[in-house]
Amino acid sequence: MDDIISELKRLKEEHMQEKKDDIYFRTIEKLLVIERQAIYGTLSQKNKKIELEIDKEMKNYRELKNVN
Amino acid sequence: MLIKRVKIKNFRQYYGEVELNFATEKEKNVTVIRGENGVGKTAILNAVKWAFFETFTNNFLNKKDLVNNTALKQGKSRCSVEIEFEENEKHYLLLRDYDQKTRKSKLVIYPYSGDTLGSSLPDPTIVINTLLPKEMAEYFFFQGEGSNAVNVGNNGSDLAKSIRDILGFEVANRLITDLKSLSKNLRSKIAELDTSGEAKKLRQKLDDIEDSLSIDIEALSGKNELLPKLKKQLQDVETQLDQINNHDLQNLKQKERSLEREIIELKKNIRSANIKKVSNIARYGWAVFGYDFASTSQDFIDESELKGRLPEPYNETFIKDILEAKECICGNDLASQKDAYEKIAGMLSQAANPVLLQRLSGIRAQIQDIKTLHELAADNIKENIETLQQTHERLAVKKKELAEIVEKIGLIPEDRIQKLQNSKKKLLNDVSITDKSIGKLEGSIETNSALKAGLERKLKDATPNNDALSAVQLKKLFVEELAEVIESHLGKTEKNIRLHVLTEVNKSLDRFSRHDFKIKVEPSNFSFQLLDKYDNKVSQGDGLNLLLNLTITSSLINFAASRRDVKDPILSSATVAPLLIDAPFGVLDNKYRNVVVSELPKQARQVIFLVSSSQWSKAMDKEIRSKVGKEYLLILEETSDKRDKEIDYLSVKGEKRAVSRYNCDVDRTVVEDVT
Predict the structure, then answer these.
(1) Complex ipTM value
(2) Pick from B174, B479, B481: which is nearest to A35 by CB?
(3) Both B422 and B485 in a single domain?
(4) Can you tell me whether residue B89 is helix, strand or coil?
C-alpha cells in the first residue's frame, strides 16, 4: 500500500512539475517572441504586450499555486 | 544564415554594379570565385565584412578610400554593398552605403517576402549581432594567408559571448531585464493598494531589501563578467613576459653592470700607468737623455786617466816637496836655476789637490748613477709600457663584450617589460579586489535573500485580505519566477555549451591535423589553448594557426548543427554564417589542402572560396567539383594598351579562359559566371 501511495505521490509531483514547466516555458516562449519581434521587426508597446501575455497565463498560474 | 546574393557598386576595383549569386543548395553548397592577385578577391571578402560589421581584414589598406577611382573621377562619391540573405526561412535585404566625401556609412536591413520589402528594422546592428556576432565573424569571414587568421587563445571571452549571442542569450537577457522592470512596477502598485500599517512597514523593508538585492545582483553580474576578462588579461601579460624572457634580461643586466665595473677599474689602471709613465720620465728622463753624455764623459776620463792627464799629472804635495828640496827629480839644482824653479812653482796652480781628486771621484760616482738609473729606467719603462699595452687590450676586449651585451639588451624591449610588469601588478591587484568583491556580494546576496524570504512570510500573514492586492502580489511572484527560470536555464546551457564545443573542437582537430594535438578550453574565459600529447603548450605558425582557425570554425558549425534538433524553449538553434574564405589554402601544404577542401563543404551549410590559380590544383578541383553550385571568374579590364604584357589565363573545366583584357573603356574588374 505504501508503495502505491509513494508511486502516486511521485506521479503527482511529476505531473505538477510538468504543469509548472508548461506554464513557465509556455509563457517565456510567448514573451521571447515579443522580444524578437521588437528586435527584428517594428513592434511597438513591447512592455504592454509582455504584461498582457503574463495576464493571460495568470489563471493557470493561480491554479498552480492554489493546488500547491 | 545563407547569403543568396551580393551586389557591389563602385567599391574598390568594381566600377558600376557587379552581382554575385551564391550557391545555396544543400548538395551544391560551394561557390568558387577565382581571380589572380590584385584583381579583387580580397575586395569581395571585405565588401561582405564591411557590409555586415563595418570592419575589414588586416591587410585591407586605406580603409576610408572605398569608392572606385574611376567613379570618383566622374564625381560619384558613394559606394554600396547589398546583401540578400536568408535566416530561419525569413528573407532580408541588407544595404550598406558609404559616402567618401563625408566618410559616413549607413546600414539598413529590410525584411522581405516575395517582391515586397517591409519597413526597415529599427536596430540593424543588433539584428546582425544576434545572427552572427562581430567577434564570431572572424571565424567565418576571414583571410587564410596569415594576415587575418584568428589567433587561437586570444579570443576567449569574445568567443564565449559570441556563442551566447548566436544562441539568443541577448534576447533572453533582454526579457529578464523587462521582467525585472515589470516586477518593480508591480511592487509600486502593491504599495499603493496596501493600506494596512504593519504590512506597509514590512513592505517598505522588503522594498529596501529588494532594491539592495537588485543592486548587489547587478554588481555581482558585472564582477563575474569582469573577473574572467581580468584573468585573461593577466594570462596574456604573463605570456608576453614569458615570451620576452625576462630572466635573460636580468642576467644580461648583471653582466652589463659587472663589465662596466671592470671597465672602470681598467681605466683607473691605465690612468695609474700613465702617471707612472710621467713619473718615470721625471725620474729617469735625465738619466736616459744624459746617458750618452755620461758615457762620453766616462770614456774621456778613462782615456785621460790612461794617458795620465787625469787627474792632473802633478800632485801638489809632490811639487811642493821638489820646491822645498830645491832639487828636481832629474837631479838639477833648482836654487841656482831660477827659471826652472819658477816653472815648477808655476805648476802648482794646475797641480791636483785633494779637492780636485774628490771632485773627480764625485763625477765618476755621478756617471755611475746615470748608468745605473739608465738600466733601471729601461726595466721600469718597459714594464710600464707592457702594463699599459695589456690594460688597453683588456679594456678593448671588455668594451667589445659590453657593446655586445648592450646590443642584446637593446633587442629586449625593456620599457615594454617594465610596462608589462606594472600591468601584471595592477591586474593581480584588480583580480584580488574583484575576487574579494564577488565573495562580499555573494555573502550580502545570501543574507538579503534570507531576509527577503522571512519578510515575505511575515508580509503574507500581515497583509489584509484584499483581492486586488493579492492578484498583483501573485502576478509579481509569477514575473519574478519567470525571470529566475530563464536565468537558471541560461546558466545550465552555458555549462553544456562549453563541454560541447570542447568535444567538437577536439573531434575536428583529429580530422584536420596529422599531429597528436588536443585543445583545452579555459573554463573561466572560454579561451583555447593548443597542447601536445604531453600537455605542453604548442607555438603556432601561420599554417597551424590557419588550421586551428578552420578547426574552431568547423567545430562551431558542428555545434550549431547539433543544436538544430534540440527543442529549447528559451534559446534558439545556433545560427551559422556562410564560410567566406579568401586564399584559404595559401599556407597549407597539399595534404591539408585536400582535406580542408573536401571536409569544409561537408560541414558548413554554405562555403565561398576566393582563390587564385596558385591555390587551386586539379586534385582540389576534382575533390570538390560535385559540390560546386556557382563559379565565377574575376577578369581584369585595363584601358591601357597590351604592349608586351602577358594575357593571364585560368583553366575552367579544362577550358583556357583569359582573365585580363586591354584597351577597355574603364579600368575595373568584371565578374563572369562560368558555372
Answers:
(1) 0.81
(2) B174
(3) no
(4) coil
Task: List CB contacts (< 8 A) between A41 and chain B.
Answer: 111, 118, 121
Q: pLDDT tens digits, chain A, 68 residues: what are they?
A: 677 777 777 776 776 666 667 889 889 989 988 888 787 666 778 899 999 999 999 888 888 877 44
Domain boundaries, chain A: 2-67
Cα separation, B631 vs B672, whole angstroms = 9
Q: Which residue of A has its CA nearest to B126?
A: A39
CA–CA distance, B620 with B629 (Å, rounded to integer):
15
> How far does the CA of residue B184 sit from the closest CA of chain A (Å)?
13
At CA B494, angle to CA B491 and CA B499, rounded to 5?
135
Assess whether B241 and B365 both reside in one domain: no
Q: Which of B117, B478, B480 to mutate to test the interface with A (most CBs of A within 10 A)?
A: B478
Pair B257, B361 in one domain: yes
CA of B575 vs chain A CAs: smallest distance (Å): 15
Residues B273 and B375 reside in one and the same domain: yes
Minimum CA–CA partner of B180 in chain A: A47
Same structural domain, B176 and B272: no
pTM for the whole thing? 0.54
Which of residues 86 through 115 in chain B touch A, CB cutoff 8 A?
111
Alpha helices by DSSP H, listed for B326-353, are: 338-346
The helix or strand, by DSSP H or E, that contains position B20, with its residue range, turns out to be strand B14-21
* Shared domain check, B545 and B565: yes
- Tell the burial category of B144 from Cβ atoms under 10 Å away from its Cβ (0-12, 13-18, 19+): buried
Grid cell, residue B499, equals: 563541454
Q: Is B471 an 8 Å CB contact of chain A?
A: yes
Measured CA to CA in angstroms, residue B564 lies from A43, B527, B556, B571 at distances of 27, 25, 13, 11
Is any Cβ of chain A less than 8 angstroms from the Cβ of B416? no
Contact between B576 and B1 (Cβ < 8 Å): yes
In a domain, B219, yes or no: yes
pLDDT in tens, B1-37: 899 999 999 999 999 999 999 999 988 999 999 888 8
| Binary contact (B570, A36; C-beta < 8 A) | no
Per-residue model confidence (pLDDT) at position B177: 92
Q: Which domain holds residue B208?
A: 196-245+412-463
Measured CA to CA in angstroms, residue B133 lies from A54, B81, B577, B604 at distances of: 31, 19, 10, 17
B42: in domain: no
Please indicate, yes or no, whether residues B183 and B202 belong to a single structural domain of this protein. Answer: no
Q: What is the DSSP letter of A17?
A: H
Query: Which of B121, B471, B486 is the closest to A40 by Cβ?
Result: B121
The answer to whether B474 faces chain A, any CB pair under 8 Å, is: yes
Strand partners, B661: B637
Q: How many domains does chain B have?
A: 3
